[in-house]
Structure formats: C-alpha cells, structure tokens
Design goal:
The protein has 620 residues and is of the alpha/beta class. The chain has 21 helices and 14 strands. It is 37% helix and 11% strand. The strands form four sheets. It has a seven-stranded mixed β-sheet with strand order 2-8-7-6-5-3-4, sandwiched between helices. Strands 11-14-13 form a three-stranded antiparallel β-sheet, covered by helices on one side. Helix 13 packs across helix 15 (429-438) and helix 14 packs across helix 15 (429-438). The longest helix is centred in the middle third of the chain and has 39 residues, at 337-375. Mean pLDDT is 82; it is low at 494-512, 546-550 and 574-614.
Length: 620
C-alpha cells in the first residue's frame, strides 16, 4: 500500500513529457537495439572515464503543478523596474494577437529547424517574411533566416570577412560597440588567429593588415555617425565593412546597404520579443551580392513543387555540421526560429507606417528628454542620436542612478561621471519626468509638451528609401486579419496521417506545454540582463538555496562537488575533446593558434522533385 507521501509526490511529468513508458515501450526499444537493460546501453554509450557513478544529490522530484506555483511565487517576488539601460536590450510591446497565437501556441513554439519543407510551409513563409524585413531595412539583397543573437552574428560576420579577404589577420572594432558584442568577437577570434583592435572611428582606420571593420550604428553611447567616409576608407584598403545596426532605427536612418556596407548584423529583439533576462533573441545577418556561398546559417527560398505550384524550401545550408562537418562555415547555433517568427509577425502587423511611427515616437521621447536635461544645465553633447543620450554629471553618476532607481528606473552607469539613458517603445511621459527628477531637475508633465520638437535628422543621416512594400506588410492590420493569417500559416503543414509529419512531430518533443509555462510570466520576461543581482535574488536561485532545506542533502551536495573537483584535477593533463565533437564532427583536436581556412565550394541544395533551380530569396 502506498503511503500518503508517495501519493502526494506522484508525478507523471517525465512519462508525459518523454512519451515513453517504462514497461513495454522501453523493452521493445531495448530489444530493437540489442540491449537487455538501460544500464547496459549506457555502459556502451557513455565512456566510463566520464560517467557519474553516484546518484545525483537532488531532492525528490516535485509535481508539475507545485513547480509551476513556485516559479510564479519566485517571479512575483522580483522587483520589476523600467529599464532605460539600452545596450541592445529594449522593452517592447508584444501585440496580444502575436503573443497568444505565436509565443504561447505549440504550433509555433515547438518548431525546430524546418528540415522537411513539405510539412513546414507555414513556418518557412514566416521566415521568408523575416528575411524580407531584414533585407528591406538594411538595403542589402540577401539575409539569412536568423542567427543566435547580435554578438554571435557579429562574430559570424568577422569570420565571413576573414574567409573572403585576400590578406590580413586584423579586425578593427568600433570603440562605441556594444560590450557583449565585443566580448563575443574577441572570444571567436582566438581560435581563428585573428587580432581584434578597438578603434574610435572619428580618426583614420589604423595601419596594418586589416581585413575588416565593425561599426556600431547607432553606437552604444547613442551617437549616430555618417558611415560613408568610413566605408570609403575601408574599401580603399581592400577590407570588408560590417555594420551592427538597430533595425528599428533603420526605419529612420540611412541603411547600411545604401552607403556600401558589405555585411549588416544585429538583433530583432525590439520587434516584439521580450527582454527575457538577456535572451534568447533572434540575431540577423545580411550581405551584399557575391557573398552568398559564405553566408552562415540558413536561407529560405521560393521554388516550385512537382505540380508547378509555389513552394518554400531551405535553399542554402552552407554551414551545417551534418553536411560539411569540420568544413562548415560556422559551428555556432544558427537559428532562433520562434523569435524570428515573432519579429517577422511584428513587422507584418505594424507594417512600414507602424514601425516608422514607433521609431519616431522613441526618437521624440529621447529628444524631449535631452532638451530637458540641456535646459537644466546637464552636458549631453551635440552629436546626432536616435534613442540614447549620454549625460556628463561630474562626480554624481552613482547618486543619479540611485535616485532613478528610487523612481523605479534603471539607468546605465558608464563611469563615475557619466550616465546613459535609452528610450524605447514603452517609454512614456512619466518616465521622462522621473529621469529629470533623478538629475535634480524640477520639470513636470507639462514641460514634456513644451520641450517636444520635431527636429529632423540631418539630411546625410535621414532615410528616404521605401521599405516593406510587399502586400503582406499591409494586409493584416486588424487583430482578426492577423489571427486568420497566423492560423492559416500554422495549418499549412502536411496531412495528419503523413508518416513524415509523425517523424517531424517526434523531433519536436523537446518543448511542450508544461515546460513553456514560465515563458508567459511577465516578471522574468521583463527583467533585463545586467541589473544588480541583489534586485533579482528571487529569480536567481542557486541550487544550494533549494537544497538548503535539508542539512543532510546539503552535505551530500558538498561531498559530490569535492569528488568531482578531484576527478577534474586528476584528469587535467588528459587530451581535450574538441568543442563540437559529436558523431558528425572531426575527431582531430584543432590547433587554437592555427588560422581556420574554410573552402566554400558548391552546395547541392535539395529541391522538390520536378522543381526549378532558380530561387527567389525575398518577397517583392
């Protein structure tokens, strides 16, 4: 007879999530692969040298409902403030029709890479929309179907520029670049033998064997510079120009493609994707013509099927480990399909006029904020900006930050004398008044209207070219129309009885309704990375805090950690395993100091039977 405790702790989460019973299902699977038990299978699959022989020092599994309740309780104890830190993370408004029907809809959030185009037509169309958004806003002809985030997109662009360069091993990075982007680029450069140099582009590009440069547009400080002189100088040196551009800002600013940039990278987070405590967010990369075969990631194209009807497919996968193994153009995670789809639908829902209005509102809020600070005697410089201003407050930066936090607002501390403030889609007049108070200014709501001025951007920086002219970006402005469009895309998959669909569904079991519950909580979704951890203790729970309820369990955890540390010390001299050493990767340990040389070659991209080779990679 089961005890009451056993009945209380009964949880079918694992069985329901994995979908395999411990009885007949497991036995049949073991018989198929020729093993008598799971222990025998693991003994052959996991080398003894790395196998943990002791049980994990964890408390008993809690029922799913209790876990969800505890997560809600922890999130509710968080103090959610308004982030005006900027640096690539901005609060945004996810339209309810997109949040409910994409972010929280298993027809979209369980989707992985659409390797089987015949049952992924709806998702491929959404990704094609994403590519079109990036191509139009950057004014570059080809864009991929998303990357991991802005930092890794910049690292991919550096590697791409290195592959196509005739010579050189030095990559020059803007001194005003986002700090997380610089960190990722420096890390990626080490195994490639690339030297990363930071440089202020107010002066000439440094001498040396430069093969490429990265310019932030707008810069981390908010400065918007004219890219033309930089592009011209770099091209005269025979190097490639990479521009890390803000997609929302590009609705108002001259796009990189129009000034001759070779590559554009960035993030689509501002297009309806919650901050999410720093990620994940869909990065993007767009390139000029001639670099297609070096493009990392995936490219959705339009072809025709055997019946002559239009059909979407993955037209290019140059980087895939499962195709090219160690010769892949990249081994970084190459897609954020769900988040790219959210960003694409945000653009479809708002259209070019809606996106421009949001960007203009953000710029006007920043302009009014700057005018108030300037009126109060705060030095904010005179360089053009889009959404971010940098204020000089000698010796008072920490006091200003503390006063802003008391108002419920997080600002960015640049140094002891400098504070940076960024506006975004959720910035309202009350936020401006609160920031003014933090700076010790006596301005009020009525002053916002007085200080607002429609000061145009300099002609050399203002965008004049149209974008998002395809009908899909103007046909779904109402919630009803958008809902029908999303439903139609979600249903554009193969028949329910199609065996290929069954295989595809099995590949998507990694994400289910129960595990997705925390994604909808406002507190974690609105928390920005980089905030002081002392304000985030409820959400940043350490394992020892959870285990601390049981003193004996805490001692077992410490003992297990000591044993693990001893094993690590004993094996310190052992041969290291390559970072990507799965069964599809090379077993050779690469020399970190050796420059990687990738050969692009021709791809044999798959296509539907009877389909034509010619592809269209964008709408319009």
């Amino acid at each position: 007879m089961k005890s009451l405790f056993d009945l209380e702790r009964t949880s079918e989460f694992v069985a329901r999530h994995v979908g395999v019973s411990e009885g007949d299902d497991q036995r049949r699977m073991l018989e198929t692969v020729g093993y008598a038990s799971l222990d025998d299978l693991l003994a052959d699959a996991v080398p003894a040298s790395i196998r943990e022989k002791l049980a994990l020092a964890l408390p008993p599994a809690a029922p799913e409902a209790e876990v969800a309740a505890e997560l809600r309780d922890l999130a509710g104890r968080n103090r959610v403030t308004t982030s005006m830190i900027g640096l690539g993370y901005y609060d945004t408004i996810t339209p309810p029709v997109i949040r409910r029907n994409v972010l929280e809809n298993p027809a979209w959030y369980t989707a992985y890479t659409p390797y089987q185009p015949e049952i992924s037509q709806g998702r491929l169309e959404a990704l094609l929309n994403f590519q079109t958004v990036v191509e139009d806003l950057t004014a570059l002809p080809i864009a991929g179907a998303s990357l991991l985030d802005e930092g890794t997109a910049a690292a991919e662009a550096m590697a791409l520029a290195h592959r196509v360069a005739r010579s050189g091993d030095t990559f020059v990075v803007d001194a005003d670049v986002l700090p997380q982007t610089l960190s990722v680029v420096q890390t990626r450069a080490l195994p490639l033998g690339i030297t990363v140099v930071t440089h202020d582009f107010d002066s000439a590009v440094p001498d040396g064997d430069v093969f490429g440069v990265l310019v932030q547009y707008p810069g981390a400080s908010g400065t918007v510079r004219d890219l033309r002189p930089i592009v011209s100088e770099v091209h005269e040196r025979g190097a490639q120009v990479v521009v890390a551009a803000d997609l929302l800002a590009l609705t108002l600013l001259v796009p990189p493609g129009e000034v001759g940039a070779d590559i554009a990278v960035g993030t689509s987070q501002r297009f309806g994707v919650p901050i999410g405590f720093g990620g994940p967010h869909a990065g993007y990369i767009a390139i000029r013509a001639g670099l297609e075969r070096q493009l990392p990631g995936r490219l959705v194209g339009v072809s025709v099927d055997a019946d002559g009807a239009p059909a979407y497919r993955l037209a290019l996968q140059t980087r895939e480990q499962h195709i090219r193994r160690e010769k892949a153009t990249s081994n970084i995670c190459t897609a954020q399909v769900l988040l790219a789809n959210i960003a694409s639908m945000y653009a479809v829902y708002h259209g070019p006029n809606g996106l421009t209005a949001i960007a203009e509102r953000v710029r006007r809020m920043a302009s009014a904020l700057a005018a108030g600070l300037r009126e109060g005697g705060v030095d904010i410089g005179d360089t053009p900006f889009f959404d971010t201003i940098t204020a000089q407050v000698p010796g008072r930066a920490h006091a200003v930050l503390a006063a802003a936090l008391a108002e419920g607002i997080n600002l960015r501390l640049v140094d002891d004398d400098t504070v940076s403030i960024s506006c975004d889609e959720v910035t309202r007049r009350g936020h401006l008044v609160a920031v003014w108070r933090a700076f010790g200014l006596g301005l009020s709501y009525s002053d916002v209207e007085r200080l607002d001025a429609d000061a145009p951007l300099p002609a050399s920086l203002a965008r004049t070219s149209p974008f998002l002219s395809h009908p899909v970006f103007s046909a779904h402005r109402s919630e009803t129309a958008m809902l029908r469009y999303l439903r139609r895309l979600a249903e554009r998959v193969g028949p329910r009885h199609d065996p290929a669909r069954l295989v595809h569904d099995e590949a998507e079991r990694h994400d289910r309704d129960g595990t997705d519950q925390p994604a909808g909580l406002r507190q974690p979704a609105s928390v920005r990375a980089g905030r002081p951890v002392r304000r985030l203790r409820p959400v940043v729970r350490r394992p020892d805090e959870v285990a601390g309820r049981d003193h004996r369990l805490r001692r077992r955890v410490a003992a297990a950690e000591r044993r693990r540390a001893r094993r690590v010390r004993r094996s310190a001299g052992h041969r290291r395993v390559p970072p990507f050493s799965g069964r599809h990767a090379s077993r050779r340990v690469p020399d970190p100091g050796q420059r990687a040389r990738h050969q692009c070659g021709e791809r044999r991209a798959g296509r539907p039977a009877g389909g034509r080779r010619q592809d269209v990679r964008r709408r319009g």
